[in-house]
Amino acid sequence: MVFSINQLNLHTIWQEFRISLKQFIRAHVSNEQDSEDILQEVFIKIHNHLPNLKEEEKLHSWVYQITRNTIIDFYRSQAKSQAKLLDSDKERLLQNETDITDEGNKNEIVAAWLKDLMEQLPEKYKEALIYVELEQHTQKELANKLGISLSGAKSRVQRGREKLKNILLECCHLEFDNLGNILDYNVNKGNCSCREIK
């Protein structure tokens, strides 16, 4: 989502990025408490430096660069406290794994479209995906909430994912690397609900 400078505040950014940032951090930091601490530190930095952001269209890449740097700082501090050097391969991975440019990380850009695309799903699939993918509940919790079997919940989530993927691929051409990361995308602006995020 693209915000105007006047719309930007910490609460707005928290609502927009909290879930995806938590997932991004957990992909690099295995300890849940450490990842929560890093997430809090990221939003402290965002709060402190938000007045310096001049171009709202660069918000996405700016937020993820702060997050990446905070993760690197975490590993550096861990290394110092344990009297050993930061694993250079680990740092290199963090710097290069998902190359964040001024246009933002392609995986994260496309992921940001998905909430809006979910609105096009039939209600039962939309409800299931929002509950599991966006609100981060388990499929077992979904089954309990809906009063259906676990296999039924799994089937609903799987079918919802397939339908969501079809909606995305109908309106956008995606190019992937051999690891499944998105290298580039082409939005069919004439018939697409995806929005380009710069």
From TrEMBL:
Domain RNA polymerase sigma-70 region: 16-80
InterPro entries recorded: RNA_pol_sigma-70-like (IPR039425), RNA_pol_sigma-70_dom (IPR014284), RNA_pol_sigma-Z (IPR014304), RNA_pol_sigma70_r2 (IPR007627), RNA_pol_sigma70_r4_t2 (IPR013249), RNA_pol_sigma_r2 (IPR013325), RNA_pol_sigma_r3/r4-like (IPR013324), WH-like_DNA-bd_sf (IPR036388)
Keyword Calcium applies: no
GO biological process: DNA-templated transcription initiation
Transcription regulation found in the keyword field: yes
Keywords: Sigma factor, Transcription, Transcription regulation
GO terms assigned for molecular function: DNA binding; sigma factor activity
Any matching Pfam family: Sigma70_r4_2
Domain RNA polymerase sigma factor 70 region 4 type: 113-164
UniProt-listed PANTHER family: RNA POLYMERASE ECF-TYPE SIGMA FACTO, RNA POLYMERASE SIGMA FACTOR SIGZ
Family assignment from sequence similarity: Belongs to the sigma-70 factor family. ECF subfamily.
Protein name: RNA polymerase sigma factor SigZ
Organism: Paranoxybacillus vitaminiphilus
